[in-house]
């Protein structure tokens, strides 16, 4: 007796259907009710449909891309920006104004906010708390500009006061959940008065503020608040370049010069701050003495503890997301430099933490890095448009061609799709694997730079945009891919190519 395909157990049918490419699998939805019910009921098949669509539709179907062009002539340059919940917000270097609009609106309305003083940084957590956090400093003297690899920021030569403002996006007013909508950072007499930079990060009810002082030793101060209660949780000093939440209870700091990543557990009282981090993760040794690392970070979505649920089969998890560190290596002569990206799994970093009963530990790159990280060459963004990662995905712009490259670090996607390089017609698809030889450029550049072999094994899937699509930056959030064309210095315009799934 012949066995019909649809007589097979659902488990076998799912295995068979999982071997199909995107378009064949989508066609099966209209073939048979039983097939459709199996596809609809399989989390893996739903994920596969969404994952492949995410990486191919933007490039294969240009009609799916919607363009928004805005005249922002009062913006001379974009100082800082954020994307969350389909809301894009940006602040200007000179005017000190902040603007935002919704990507989903057919005719976007630009909202504007003016603050007394200078806007140093901003952060959005729209799906989580409808929150806009803005860091400002009071301007007393003239401003000059310091250049960063990721973006330019003002050096406020007379800034004496740092404030954080918490707004609710729906009402465009003080956030109703914030007991103190404006928090003034407490001053300490021994600190210098010149604030050179301030950066902010959000995770659920907690917000981290890293302030750099131009005339103080140590130059960096980390403050962690419960922004809803207006309560200071941690306040300590060090030589740090970045601060990012790994979870609600853990923050990662990058040490200046050495680039070491230090993981600290967050205390509930400023007086309880421990004298050392729980773990110190070193970057690869440099071959010659005198060289140093400068580590920058990138914005990431989603914000929060990962407690948000989603009905979408392909959504971004905070717990399983990646962290992107932009690593600038300066050699002793200060004339030779190398810019690399380091992608690390957030969950894997947290798993390295020793238990509370164990002493603090220090690990070399060889001991912690290769299995959970990936080195990428060339830098992932322009000077003014640093990338925004989303979940386990990263989008970068080739600095030479302006083309977009999308990378998915989801291990299940990587394992399932890494062997499928050709579609049914025998033609190469937009989706390909990223092999170690293609991305481990560090080893090829290592002579004279690194004192040890650099290996990184975190796998990912890659899709490249057509050569005719040229961008200054690319941002990710939820189901949005946003290509940015920046001509502010030419005609005062910003152009956004939007694709939503």
TrEMBL record:
- UniProt domain F-box: residue ranges: 2-47
Q: Which Pfam families match?
A: F-box-like
Q: Which InterPro entries match?
A: F-box-like_dom_sf (IPR036047), F-box_dom (IPR001810)
> Taxonomically, which superkingdom?
Eukaryota
List the SUPFAM superfamilies: F-box domain
Q: What is this protein called?
A: F-box domain-containing protein
Source species, please? Mycena metata
The top of its lineage is: Eukaryota, Fungi, Dikarya, Basidiomycota, Agaricomycotina
């Amino acid at each position: 007796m012949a066995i019909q395909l649809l007589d097979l157990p659902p488990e076998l049918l799912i295995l068979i259907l999982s071997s199909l490419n995107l378009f064949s699998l989508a066609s099966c939805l209209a073939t048979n009710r039983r097939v459709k019910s199996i596809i609809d009921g399989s989390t893996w098949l739903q994920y596969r449909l969404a994952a492949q669509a995410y990486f191919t539709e933007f490039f294969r179907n240009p009609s799916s891309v919607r363009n928004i062009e805005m005249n922002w002539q009062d913006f001379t340059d974009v100082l800082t920006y954020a994307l969350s919940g389909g809301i894009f917000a940006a602040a200007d270097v000179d005017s000190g104004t902040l603007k935002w609009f919704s990507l989903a609106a057919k005719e976007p309305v630009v909202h504007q906010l003016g603050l007394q003083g200078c806007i140093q940084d901003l952060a959005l957590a729209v799906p989580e708390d409808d929150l806009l956090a803005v860091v400002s400093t009071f301007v007393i003297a003239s401003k000059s500009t310091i250049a960063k690899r990721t973006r330019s920021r003002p050096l406020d030569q007379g800034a004496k006061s740092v404030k954080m403002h918490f707004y609710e996006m729906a009402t465009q007013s003080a956030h109703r959940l914030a007991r103190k909508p404006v928090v003034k950072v407490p001053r300490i007499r021994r600190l210098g008065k010149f604030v050179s930079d301030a950066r902010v990060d959000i995770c659920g009810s907690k917000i981290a503020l890293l302030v750099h002082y131009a005339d103080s030793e140590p130059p960096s101060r980390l403050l962690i608040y419960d922004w809803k209660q207006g309560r200071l949780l941690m306040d300590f000093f060090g030589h740090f370049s970045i601060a990012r939440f790994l979870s609600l209870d853990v923050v990662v700091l990058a040490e200046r010069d050495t680039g070491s990543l230090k993981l600290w557990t967050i205390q509930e009282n400023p007086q309880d701050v421990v004298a050392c981090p729980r773990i110190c993760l070193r970057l690869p040794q440099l071959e010659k003495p005198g060289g140093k690392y400068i580590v920058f970070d990138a914005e990431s979505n989603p914000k929060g503890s990962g407690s948000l649920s989603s009905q979408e089969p392909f959504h971004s998890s905070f717990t399983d997301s990646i962290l992107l560190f932009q690593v600038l290596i300066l050699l002793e002569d200060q004339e030779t430099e190398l810019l690399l990206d380091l992608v690390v799994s957030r969950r894997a970093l947290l798993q390295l933490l020793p238990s509370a009963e164990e002493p603090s530990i220090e690990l070399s790159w060889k001991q912690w890095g290769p299995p959970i990280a990936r080195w990428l060459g060339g830098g992932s963004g322009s000077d003014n448009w640093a990338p925004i990662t989303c979940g386990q995905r990263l989008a970068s712009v080739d600095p030479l061609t302006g083309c977009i490259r999308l990378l998915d670090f989801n291990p299940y996607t990587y394992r399932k799709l890494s062997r499928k390089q050709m579609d049914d017609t025998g033609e190469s698809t937009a989706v390909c694997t990223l092999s170690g030889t293609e991305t481990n450029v560090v080893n090829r550049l290592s002579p004279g730079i690194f004192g040890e072999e650099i290996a990184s094994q975190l796998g990912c899937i890659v899709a490249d945009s057509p050569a005719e699509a040229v961008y200054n930056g690319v941002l990710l959030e939820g189901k949005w891919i946003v290509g940015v064309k920046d001509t502010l210095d030419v005609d005062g315009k910003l152009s956004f190519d939007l694709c939503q799934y």
